[in-house]
Each structure stands twice: as structure tokens, then as C-alpha cells.
Amino acid sequence: MNDAQDFQHSRLQRIPVDDDWFDVLKIFDHLFAISEPRHYEHTVIYLVLGSDRAVLIDTGCGIGNLRRVVEQLTTLPITVVNTHSHLDHLGSNQQFAEIFMFDHPRSRDISRYGAPPEVLLWELHRQELVIPPWPHGFQGGALPPFNVSRWLKHDDVVERGGLRLRVLHTPGEAPDHICLLDQTHRILFSGDILLNGPVWSHLDGGDVGQLYQSYEFLMRHYDEFDLIMPSHNAPCQHKDLLPVALAASKDVLSGKAQTQAGIDPWGRHYKRYDFNRISILSK
Ligand SMILES: [Zn+2]
Q1: What is the distance in A from the centroid of ligand 1 to the CA of 101?
Q2: Angle ∠(227,70,65) on CA atoms, nearest 5
Q3: Phi, psi of 238 (to 5 degrees)
Q4: How remote is the C-alpha of 237 from its chain's centroid?
Q5: Which of 91, 119, 157, 191 could link 61 by a cystine bridge, Cβ 3.0 to 4.6 Å?
Q6: Domains in the chain, ordered, with CATH?
């Protein structure tokens, strides 16, 4: 058992909520991980409580009623910050009034036009992506457009309710991907680029070279956090996942790593490189 697993087993407390689509873990008094374990994506949404306002990092697949669960955890008003514009990270944006996103043509497009039902059906609502039962009241359909209150730039600081989250542009899996660094609590919210499992750089807009550069850039902040909170799979990883990922991406780029070919559930071909604790998928 490594440190990260140790931490999870000893510290994380499951919080009962009146909704069996979501799984809620309390990481600290101010921090909850809300995950969707019955979806193939196994997304993780973070609720960070400030003094008079809370920040919600991502809004998941939009299949369960996220707002209803958030309201069981806090009465504070919510600011949503999306880590990037993939559909499994902003599915419930329309349930919240204040949304911050990284300023990029992809995020501008998705907020302006949303996404049609057939795209949602293919990307997220297919039967084979979900372990039933589907949440009560879920009907599928389009992703509606949503209003963005603030367009974020690299190195901006999101200051809400006494929280301070530094915006770090970190492409590699998506061109508009950001990590959020909470220097007060020494936590890096790493989105899709640092997680226990595969990093999907084979997607449209993904690139292993950029991923490597993002890891190198994050290493400059290595002294400023202790824990990593990924947006998929297990929440809460020890920070030493970052140097592991940096070395892994370097081995992929230099051609040193062993690879095997595969196809994801959406029919996209990839080359898979497996390392200890992390895998990288490339085109
Ligand atoms: Zn994702």
C-alpha cells in the first residue's frame, strides 16, 4: 500500500446523501469529493467550502441531480470553475448561476451553443457507459448553453469566500485544460492530467509533448502543495504522482516506453503506455 492509498483509507469519510448516483467523501472539513462511480468516466467533482461562498470544481456528466447533492452539503452560494470543456466536466453547469472558465475558443463555443442530444447520447448517455439504475428523473437530451461570469487567464487567482485558487494553464489532454492551485490548503486540483489511471492524450486536442511541458511547469510549484485532487477515479493522491508522470511522459516522447495498441469505447485508436500508478494514451 502506498502513501496515497494509506491516506485514503485512514482519512476519507463517506458522507451519506439522499442520491445513490453520487458517492461523497469528506477529505477535510472544507473539502468534499463528489464522484460518479457508476459512469464509465468515474468523474470526481470537488466542493471547496470558503467562509461565505463555496467553489465547485467541475460539474460532472450531468446525469444525476448535482445541485440537489451540493445543497445537502452546504448552504453557501456556489461558484463553478471548470477544469476544461470536455462534456463530462460541465454536464450540470446550467444548474448554477456563477461559472468561471478558462478563456479559450473551445470553452467559448460550448458555453454559447451547448451540445445537441445526439452528441450527449454518444459521448455520455449510452447504456453501456452506465451501471444501472439511471438516476430518478433523468431524461437525457441536450446540454443547454450556459452563462460564463468570468473568463479566466493563466495565472489568474480565483478569490471567492476567502479561498484563493491559482489558475495554471496545463494543456496535454485538452487545449483549454487548467489546474487549480490552492496555496492556502496546499492542494493541487489536477483535472485530467494527473490521476491514478490513464491520461487521455489521444483525444482531439491532446498532445503528449504538451502534457510533458505541463508536468514540467507544475514541477515549478512542487513546493507549494502536498496533495493532488484528480478529476477522475480515486480522489486524493500524494504529490509524488507528479514526478512519476513527468518521467513517464519523457519516456513516451523518447520512445523508451513499451506500448500496446487499443481502441477506447468511442472507437478512437490509441497507443497505451503503462507505468506505476499512471498510464498515458497517445495518438
Ligand atoms: Zn475528463
Answers
A1: 15
A2: 115
A3: -65, 150
A4: 13
A5: 91
A6: 3-282 (3.60.15.10)
pLDDT of amino acid 3: 46
CB 57 within 8 A of CB 100: no
Q: What is the mean pLDDT of the chain?
A: 94
Q: What is the DSSP string of 57-111?
A: E--TTS-S-HHHHHHHH--S-EEEE-S---GGGSTTGGG-SEEEEE--HHHHHHH
Mean pLDDT on 156-165: 97
Look-up of cell digits 485530467: 192
CA of 7 to the centre of ligand 1 (A): 24
Ligand 1 centroid distance, CA of 258 (Å):
24
- The angle formed by the CA atoms of residues 40, 82 and 36, to the nearest 5 degrees, is 25
User: In this structure, what is the dihedral angle of CA atoms 38, 39, 44, 47, given to the nearest 10 degrees?
Assistant: -70
Residue pLDDT, tens place only, 2-32: 444 445 545 689 999 999 999 999 999 999 9
Cis omega (within 30 of 0) for bond into 133: yes
Where do we find the cell 478558462? Answer: 102
User: What is the tens place of the pLDDT at every residue in 69-100?
Assistant: 999 999 999 999 999 999 999 999 999 999 99
| CA–CA gap between residue 238 and residue 256 (Å, rounded) | 26
67 closest CA partner among 129, 101, 19: 19
Q: At what angle do helices 241-254 and 208-219 cross, to 10 degrees?
A: 140
